[in-house]
Amino acid sequence: MNADYEVVPLPQSIVKTDGEGFILKGSTKIYYPKENDVQKQTAEFLAEYIKLSTGLTLAVTDQDVSDNVIILKADYKVEKPESYNLIVDSKQIIINGSDEAGTFYGVQTLRKSMPVDGTNKEVVFPAVSIEDFPRFGYRGMMLDVARHTKSLEFIKKYIDILALHNINKFHWHLTDDQGWRIEIKKYPELTKIGSQRAQTVIKKNSGEFDGKPYGGFFTQEEAKEVVEYAKKRFITVIPEVDLPGHMLAALAAYPNLGCTGGPYKVGEQWGVFDDVLCAGNEDIYTFLEGVFSEIVEIFPSEYVHIGGDESPKTRWKVCPKCQAKIKELKLTSDAKHSKEDKLQSYVMTYVEKFLNSKGRRIIGWDEILEGGLAPDATVMSWRGMSGGIEAAKLHHDVIMTPTSNLYFDYYQTTDIQNEPFGIGGYVPVQKVYELEPVPSELTKEEQKYIIGVQANLWCEYVVTPEHAEYMTMPRIAALSEIQWTMPEKKNYEKFLPRLTKLMDLYQRLGYNYATHITAIASQIEPDISSGTIKISLFTYDNAPIYYTLDGSEPTDKSVKYEQPLSIDSSVYLRAVAYRGSEKSKEYDNKFDFNKATLKEIKLENSPHKNYTFKGPVLLVDGKRAVGGFASGEWIGFEGNDFVATIDLKEATDISKVITGTYEEPMSWVFGATEYTVAISEDGKIYKQVYDKKIPVLDKNSAIRTVDLVAEFPTTKARFVKVIAKNTGKIPDWHEGKGSLAYLFVDEIIIE
Ligand code: ACM
Ligand code: ZN
After folding, report:
1. Does the predicted TM-score (pTM) go above 0.70?
2. DSSP of 84-152
3. 199 partner at 20 to 30 Å CA-CA among 36, 416, 491, 543?
4. Whose CA is nearest to atom 2 of ligand 1?
């Protein structure tokens, strides 16, 4: 069995060298430098990894050996920290780090290069020289334990998963509205009251609750154990105490810290709450100093995350204490920021000064830009990349973690019916992989402020450890390659076979990883000018695909897929891939051609740029949208109406016009409030043939798809105008009241 150095993340340089390779056997020793406990630990890790993958038990030694040995050391002379040089010849494998972290990453590469068989077989490591270094110094992964907590044992397992992917920062989201999960000795009620909630909402703020108390927290001793465990794996634990918003759990424990004085309840549903720390109350500054004094004792990390996201100013605007504080500080509104925004900056800067006095630095979510950045703040850009761009231009350090590519709570497939319930969104492995975290619109100088990349796993809907693993792997593999590998080396097609090997190791390690990438993927290209739809099918490993077009069950006796299909009439495509005799999950897609299919379509108003996808052709591609609103198969309008005109090319008998819509009010996606169809002979003068008003969605509306259906006496028309009116402003019952509602549509069917 041969080792293969093309691992995830891909090393920067792998040069095959002449001569025989190294044969790893049971008698091979792992050497570490005398009296170096850190390297000894790394040597022991390597012995464990080898045992797991090959079944061979290797001895670890500090006695000089020159033959049949893996040598760990750290005197590789390069500029970049965490680099390593891995040299293999017939006598030795030398892993030479620029520092001990570098040695550790060399060990990870060696480990991932081994076949995973476990049957006591020797492994041949071909002769090679690998030179490797990380692209970014900050390589993070965030886990939210506030919404649903996890056991100490699982946190350690999670850290192992991070280490496997060369990640060096574990961002631990410890506090939020729904639970305070870290013991603070000065404020015992934080965990006594704040770590417990009476019940939890079912699904997405459905109005129904499970009636079951939920709680838990980490003692300081346990948290220190996590810090130690992570340190051995060269991972820094960055704690987050989110302020001044997302503080409901703390307010429930200490109601005097809020503007109204309460009473408050630990959050039982998700979202953003108006009750936040009262910035005009001197007690919160004492409180924050007390909390962070203990936090810095537990966590030696240079960075401490202080949140700053999603903190409404509703209470501050009417709170006499907050307004007095604004006066005292002489804060004034300007064109960009309100005086309350500036009050938040004051709070963040206050905490920054305190942490600076303890030798620490702050990280905050990109909202900390609003009202002015604290002087030395590092910005975590999550609402896209623009916050990060703005911060880099202001010469502040930036960590990129945009929802669009790096929110691992989002769905990883459009087939959401067969997924555990999730928050929405759509971030498949490829989307993670595609992210280039350094925006080209920044100058070379500004680009240096992008110090890292991170993905986030929020756990509103991620209750069990198995589910957390499922959401994390294999997307974290794609993340690790954005974090580690230089962009010119990145290639998704070549990444996939590397990922398959890594998945063998996941399997061996007993991890519960997602396998969506093993399913058949497709690319669908509707072409209005030729009146055809091109369908390409793929498997990540080129496993052969067989398909039927008549809806019958596909098997390996069906037609083999050789080249893209081109269709110009209704088909029901079903396909399977075979790996040996093993059949993949079935792929299916229905294309129904109707009078509107592949006809010229024009939109009067633009969809939102994030929800435009392939554009209006999506509405006439013969294919009904599947998945949630972010699946790429719906088009979304923010506040404005959907107005489309379809040119049927010739006067055509029509009597029915259907428009599909998608509703998910908890995600600000509302239904249409009026549906109108008008027809025309010349595209100038229109005659209305259907109009119906539809009530605004009420509080009890569910997630669903709704077909708007217009039926009218058969009439001849060439142009058909379809109007679906947007709700406009979100109604008062909703947390987003007054903001613009979204309207999502797909597929116009004309009969
Ligand atoms: C966040 O997702 N609220 C940072
Ligand atoms: Zn207040």
Report:
1. yes
2. EEEEE-SSEEEEEESSHHHHHHHHHHHHHHS----SS--EEE--EEEEE--S-SEEEEEEE-SSS---H
3. 416
4. 382
